[in-house]
Amino acid sequence: MRYFFIENQVLQCVKSIKIALTLLLCLLCLMPSQAQRKKKQAKVNPVEVARKIMLTGDYPQAQEYIAKELAAQKKLRRPTCNVDSLHILADTMKIAEANIRSTQHVVFVDSIVLPKSKIIEHLSLHPEMGRICSAEALLKQLKITVNNVGDFAFVNALGDNAFLATPQNGVLALSRTIRTGSNWSQPEPLDIPDQEGMQQDYPFLLSDGVSLYYAAQAEEGFGGWDIYVTRYDGEEKEFLKPQNIGMPFNSVANDYMYYIDESSNTGYFLTDRHQKGDSVCLYTFIPNTTHTPYPNDTDFVTLFHAAHINDIAATQQGQEQRIAEWNAKRASKITTKEGGNRPKFIISNRVVYKDIDAFKSPEAKSIAEELVTLYATLNSQETLLSILRKQFTTSPTSTIRDNILQIELERTQLIHLIKKKEGQMRQLELKVINP
After folding, report:
1. If I label 417, which of 253, 268, 289, 300 is the partner at 20 to 30 A Cα–Cα?
2. Cβ contacts of residue 419 below 8 Å, gap of 6+?
3. What does each C-alpha distance from 193 to 173, 190, 239, 274, 355 come to in angstroms?
4. Residue 192, Cβ density class (10 Å: 0-12 exposed, 13-18 middle, ≥19 buried)
C-alpha cells in the first residue's frame, strides 16, 4: 500500500512536469512571433504609407495621416522616421493639389501605345498644317551639319521655317532655320525667356505663326518633360515668357510632342505615364478653344483621375453632343481624292449614303465614322507623296526616297484596311435594311 501511494505521487509529479514543459514550449514558440510582429511594426515607414494613400487620389486622408504622424513623432525623444521627408511630402501635396484643382476638362477620344522607335510613323498631320519629322533626317535633307540634335523637328506648311533642338551652352535648346531661295540658314537660337540652360525639344507651331508649343525639362515643371507654350511678339521680335499648359497634359512623368491638326480640329500629345519599358502613349483629344475647368463642386478624387488620364471614357461623360459635333466637323472637312466631295458610303448597287446619319445600323455607323478618319489619313498620305515626289525630281536624295517608300508601304496597308472595314460596314447595314 505504501508503495502504491509513492508510485501515485511520482506519477502526479511527472504529469505536472509534462504540463509545465508543454506550457514552456508554447511560450517559446510565441516569443519569436511577438518579436517578429514588433520587428514588422518597426519597419512601417510613414512616408511610404502617406505616399501610397496619395497615389489613390485621396489627398485629404493622406494629409490627415501625415498630420497625425508628425504629432506622434513630436512626442518621441528619438523620431522613428524621417520627419523632414514627411514635411516635404506634405508641401509637395499642397502644390500638387493646387495644380490638380485647376485641371482642364479635356475630352479624350482615343489612345494608342507605341514603342519609342515607332513614334514618328504615327505623328500624322495634314500637309496644310506643316509636318513633323526626325530632326536628324531633316538636317541631312537640308544639308546642314550639326553635331547633336533633338528628336523631332517641325517644318511649317510653306516650307520656309523649321524648328528643332540644337546644342546651346551644354544643353539642347530650340532653334530655327529659315529658307531663302533654295538655301537654309544655320539654326539660330530662339532665346525663350526664363529657360536658359534647360533642355528643350519637340516643337510645334500653330498655323497662326505665333503660338509655339514644345517640351522642356524646367525646374518649375511637374517632373521630367513638361509641355509649354510661348508666343512670338511680332513688334518686339521676341518670344514671350512660356507658360506650362498644366494638367491633364503634364504630369510627374515625361510629357512631350503636343500638336493640333486644325484641319480636323484634333489634338495629340505623347506621354510615358502609365507605361512600362520603352513604350509611350499617343493620346487623341478635342482641343478646347479656351481654358475649360471642371465645375467647382467636382470631388477631388474625380479631379485626380482626370488630371492623370486614368479613364478616357470618364472624360466623355456628358460630352456626347460635343463629340458628335466634332465628328461632324471632321467629316465635313474630309475630301476624297476623286471628286473633292464628302465621302460616299456604298452599301449596295442601289443604296449609297452621302451622310453618316443615314445609317440604320449603329455598328455600321460606327465603322463609317472610322472610315471617315481612314479616308482622311489616306488623303493626307497621297498629298504628302505628291509633295515628296516633286522634291525628289529636283533633289533626289536617299532620305526623300526612303520616305517615299515608307509612305507607299503604309498607304498600301491602309487601303487594305479600308477595304476590310467597308466590307464589314456593308454587311452590318444590309442585315438591318434587308432582314
Report:
1. 268
2. none
3. 12, 9, 7, 32, 49
4. buried
Residue type, 70: L
Please give the chain's pLDDT, 435 residues, in tens. 444 444 455 445 545 555 555 554 554 455 555 545 544 454 677 888 877 887 777 788 888 888 888 888 878 777 767 778 888 888 777 878 888 989 999 999 989 998 988 898 888 888 888 999 999 999 988 888 888 899 999 999 888 899 999 999 889 999 999 988 778 999 999 989 888 889 999 999 998 889 999 999 988 888 889 999 999 988 888 899 999 999 999 998 999 999 999 888 899 999 999 888 889 999 999 999 888 889 989 988 899 999 999 999 899 988 888 888 887 766 655 543 333 445 778 888 778 888 888 899 999 998 988 888 888 788 777 777 777 777 777 778 887 788 888 888 888 888 889 889 989 999 999 999 887
Q: How far apart are CA 332 and CA 265, in angstroms?
A: 11
Look-up of cell digits 495644380: 99
Q: Are 271 and 119 in contact (CB under 8 A)?
A: no
Amino acid 296 reads: N
**Residue 191 corresponds to which cell in the numbers above?**
532665346
The answer to whether 401 touches 389, Cβ cutoff 8 Å, is: no
Please list the residues that pair with 171 across neighbouring strands. 168
Reported as half-sphere exposure (CB side, CA atoms, 13 A), residue 92 has a value of 17
CA distances from 371 to 165, 334, 374, 424 (A): 36, 11, 5, 11
> 303 with 344: CB under 8 angstroms?
no
Using an 8 Å Cβ cutoff, are 176 and 187 in contact?
A: yes
Taking alpha carbons only, the member of 321, 330, 313, 314 closest to residue 267 is 330
> Cell numbers of 207, please?
498655323
Say how far apart CA 19 and CA 405 lie, in whole Å.
89
Runs of H (alpha helix) within 102-207? 135-142
**C-beta separation of 346 from 308 below 8 A:** no
Terminal-to-terminal C-alpha distance of the chain: 107
Taking the model in full, what pTM does it have?
A: 0.65
CA angle (176, 182, 185) in 5-degree steps: 30
